[in-house]
Specification:
The complex is a heterodimer of chains A (about 190) and B (about 110). By secondary structure, chain A is mainly alpha-helical. Helices cover about 70% and strands about 5% of the residues of chain A. Chain A is rod-shaped, with a radius of gyration of 27 Å. In chain B, strands 1-3-2 form a three-stranded antiparallel beta sheet. Chain B has helices spanning about 5-20, 30-40, 45-60, 85-110, and strands at about 30, 65-70, 75-80. The chains are: A mainly alpha (about 190), B alpha+beta (about 110). Chains A and B meet through helix 2, helix 3 and helix 4 of A and helix 3 of B.
Chain lengths: ~190, ~110
């Protein structure tokens, strides 16, 4: 490697290391060391210019970004935590229409699971405000409400196991779909 | 969709298969993997795509790596090899790819 190349490689590596500062030390070192090794490998051929190698890798910040996106999603998937996975999905929402719509969809799924769970919890505490009511014009109203007092309630305490089951099924479905979604948006 | 965008999507889909296939029987470092993919499959994958892909495959347990100081090399090299899990995935991918290519070729032959 030419001395002038060495300076430029050192500068590229410095910028890359800085751009990867969010990663744990060992992961960052692996990426940086491999990039450095790649520069050495290609620049051992003196006909190859530093600029060519740097262009093929990309600007240090862009190159780092392709690891960071993967890393956050992989960590979230590895943790298995719905909260962590949701946060990463929301963070990716700005990256395109599909990611944005996906994030809204998961918000609705988890939100529905939460409402069903709340119904199962609140029914024994506020029995008159949680239920499935029969309203005028054959309309049904399901959920937690203070405005349905006096209307015919159809499920009684059966709403507790049914809501709990719906909450669990929605939660499992949302988790499964969220994992598939994150794997798809991972670059 | 223009041909450039279609080609780019096709390459992206094939990149994982090509990388796993490259390290199926050999331990190779990044530049050698790139050369094998370019020369063997004619796939124009850049370094900026390859290394993040290797990183992801390793994180998913499909490949493993080790740093080796080769004689004559000025720098340690990171060698990759396929894991059992990766080999299983590769077999499934090969099967899918072959079936898909056969079906598309048949469709194109019928059109001719």
């Amino acid at each position: 490697m030419k001395p002038s190349d060495e300076k430029q490689v050192a500068e590229y590596i410095r910028k890359l290391r800085w751009a990867l500062s969010k990663l744990p030390g060992q992961d960052r070192d692996e990426i940086v060391n491999e990039a450095e090794s790649h520069f050495h490998e290609r620049l051992s051929d003196e006909s190859v210019a530093f600029e060519t190698v740097a262009n093929d890798l990309g600007h240090p910040e862009d190159y780092a970004r392709s690891f960071l996106g993967n890393y956050e999603i992989s960590v979230a998937l590895g943790s298995g935590s719905p909260w962590h996975m949701m946060m990463v999905a929301f963070k990716s929402a700005g990256k395109g229409l599909v990611a944005f719509l996906g994030s809204i969809w998961f918000f609705i799924l988890y939100g529905s699971a939460f409402v069903f769970a709340a119904m199962a919890v609140f029914k024994p505490i506020f029995p008159r405000h949680v239920g499935l009511w029969h309203k005028e014009g054959d309309q049904l109203s399901l959920g937690i409400s203070t405005e349905n007092a006096g209307l015919e309630e159809l499920l009684g305490y059966w709403i507790i196991p049914l809501s709990a089951l719906a909450a669990v099924l929605l939660f499992v479905l949302a988790n499964w779909m969220l994992r598939v979604f994150l794997r798809k948006i991972r670059r | 969709m223009d041909i450039t965008s279609w080609k780019s999507q096709l390459r992206k889909g094939a990149a994982e298969l090509a990388v796993l296939s490259a390290v199926e029987n050999d331990r190779l470092f990044g530049l050698r993997i790139l050369e094998r993919i370019r020369e063997g499959a004619g796939l124009e994958i850049t370094e900026g795509t390859l290394y993040p892909l290797l990183n992801r495959l390793q994180r998913d347990g499909k490949i493993a790596s080790e740093w080796v100081e080769d004689e004559g090399a000025s720098h340690p090299r990171k060698y990759y090899h396929i894991t059992q899990d990766g080999a299983r995935l590769l077999q499934e991918m090969k099967k899918e790819w072959t079936g898909f290519a056969r079906a598309i070729n048949q469709l194109l032959a019928e059109d001719d």
